[in-house]
């Protein structure tokens, strides 16, 4: 049970690049990081518009002399201070992630980076190597993976409760982008501009979320090859607003050779809110989880009535209960899931600072970010070549 008690000697001195006023994702970063006193927000380059960033910093209680016009100035100036920043979160549009992440690592900072980590596998490999060389943590905010039922699924699969995994049917297929929303919504506009969003919209913006969740549920999962088809149903879009991917998996301890994963990533699923659901089918039983009802997961053993597992319940595996923040029956949500990840990032950062191992837990790290980038690349390659099968390795 997490109860707010002190985990680190001192809170990590932390800054943000992006996540300014009115941004979609800035608030949940701050809320998650500050929840357990593991981070202290002391500096920032919050906005593409420095004046707006300065005004927002004042609202957040960041000292005016530590609010900077851009990330480069921030890294330079903070390095001169004895109490300079130790970690930075990057919550800008995708096109900045690689440059800012690289600069932060070179400045000796730990990083929390939004997904997708960067645009190409080459860039991703460079960041993986740099993080290792500098002994710095790079956490990637695949926020939904912090929900406790994901831990439960991971334990159930590891303990063989489902048998061998044969099929995974997953989607992140939301509605709302079924018309030219980018004409009036700035956060939607950059998402369809390849110079700012990268080589994909739907696959990168939403498809990578269930991808990381199944990687977390099944750590020994390996993609053998995949095929993808993508479309821009709304006229004039440079990037896809809908995509389907089929993946063939290699055999492993938990996975039957030739198992299939089917993924639907969409922004034009009229009427759906998130449509973010994952069903894992094994040789004995299936589980199903939906991000809009994250405290529950169905467990369906062939020939028996459907069971609904509840967060916080005593029958869950212990690993699925260590991050309880309140007893079962009370609804925990996305903010708690993100806070769980930020807590794990903090513990890993502290361990790296002290040259220690951080113990038996996982978090979406720089390799997870690189995996997402590679997956997008392979999907785009397949789709651009008539939805052909593409080898993954
Ligand atoms: P947004 O467009 O709403 O906000 C972007 C923010 O970054 C704004 O405050 C803007 O002023 C600032 N910014 C832009 N360029 C900057 C620069 N050079 N220096 C400093 N600040 C700069 O975008 P949104 O939706 O918040 O997305 C940001 C990132 O978060 C994207 O990479 C997106 O993929 C990711 N995201 C992740 C989610 C998740 O579940 N992990 C959910 C939503 C977005």
From TrEMBL:
Q: Which residues form the Gfo/Idh/MocA-like oxidoreductase C-terminal domain?
A: 154-390
Q: Which organism is it from?
A: Butyricicoccus porcorum
InterPro entries per UniProt? Gfo/Idh/MocA-like_OxRdtase_C, Gfo/Idh/MocA-like_OxRdtase_N, Gfo/Idh/MocA_oxidoreduct, NAD(P)-bd_dom_sf
By what name is this protein known? Oxidoreductase
Q: Which Gene3D superfamilies match?
A: Dihydrodipicolinate Reductase, domain 2, NAD(P)-binding Rossmann-like Domain
Q: Which residues form the Gfo/Idh/MocA-like oxidoreductase N-terminal domain?
A: 12-142
* GO MF entry, a single one: nucleotide binding
The membrane spanning regions, by residue number, are none
Which family is this protein grouped under? Belongs to the Gfo/Idh/MocA family.
